[in-house]
Write a structure and sequence with these properties.
The chain is largely without helices or strands. The chain contains one helix and no strands. This is Sulfide-quinone reductase.
Amino acid sequence: QEHRIPSKFSMMMPAFKGVDAVAAVEGLCNPRGFVLIDKHQRSPKYHNIFSAGVCVAIPPSKRPRCPRARPRPAT
């Protein structure tokens, strides 16, 4: 099935996964391999490990960052 979406720019990104060597450390990462951190960017289990950037497990946002369009009734 083919879908056409009118837009000026479209981008698809595959789901990311953490590095296997880091994900193998017990209690350091979430199931997808991203490092769990506290509000100071520090691992809750290993206090000498700090993480920043794309390796960090970020909780999902509570609401979308951009407004969503409502469906319009067919005319």
